[in-house]
Write a structure and sequence with these properties.
The protein has nine helices and no strands. The chain has about 200 residues and is mainly α. The chain is about 70% helix and about 0% strand. It has one domain. It is a multi-pass membrane protein. InterPro entries: UPF0750_membrane, YitT. It holds the Pfam family YitT_membrane.
Length: about 200
């Protein structure tokens, strides 16, 4: 007779706090390296970066504002706890990415190495946030909402949005930067796809 598996222990408030702090910090380092290299990324972070590049505004405030319309959908689709944690994570990233440049500077970084490192940093940040019931972007929420409302697959919505974003990036970045950015996005998505497994990680 096989033993009954133990019920998973839910994260405590302290667990969630360190997970959100870790995710926000790692993501902010990723954004700092991304902007150092002049690269872009997908989702709402990518949209905020394009706006920042085109206008000269700071990424932190732009990213915070860009995400504001998505919290209501997040509340409706995933609940109050998700909305609050996501707000804290986004606010933390917005503050950290504005503070970090005075504390951390990069020298010469090859775009290929930088793109892979950004993908790894951002992927680990998102994994931590997902594991603690939070997110950094609103496009995924919109994608899930549209899937529920129309049946259109969430993955396709995100893919279409990112494809449009990278096409727009060609107007503010050169094609080499966009190509290296695509490498970083690929690494990020592989990190998430290979490690965010609900059938394995249930706490």
């Amino acid at each position: 007779m096989e033993p009954t598996p133990a019920r998973p222990t839910r994260h405590s408030l302290i667990d969630d706090a360190q997970g959100l702090a870790f995710g926000s910090f790692m993501a902010s380092v990723g954004v700092l390296l991304l902007t150092h290299l002049g690269l872009v990324t997908g989702q709402t972070a990518g949209l905020a970066l394009l706006i920042a590049y085109a206008t000269g505004w700071g990424f932190g405030p732009v990213f915070f504002v860009v995400n504001l319309p998505f919290y209501w959908l997040g509340y409706r689709r995933l609940g109050l706890a998700f909305m609050i944690k996501s707000f804290v994570a986004v606010a933390g990233l917005s503050v950290l990415v504005s503070w970090l440049p005075a504390q951390l500077q990069f020298g010469a970084v090859h775009p290929a190495v930088g793109a892979v490192l950004v993908g790894c940093l951002s992927g680990s940040a998102l994994l931590a946030l997902f594991r603690h019931g939070a997110s950094l972007g609103g496009i995924g929420i919109v994608a899930l909402y549209l899937q529920d409302a129309t049946g259109f697959r969430a993955g396709w919505t995100q893919l279409i949005f990112d494809a449009c974003l990278f096409a727009l990036a060609l107007f503010v970045r050169d094609w080499q930067a966009v190509a290296w950015s695509a490498l970083g996005a690929l690494v990020l998505n592989l990190v998430i796809a290979l490690n965010h497994r609900r059938d394995r990680y249930i706490a």
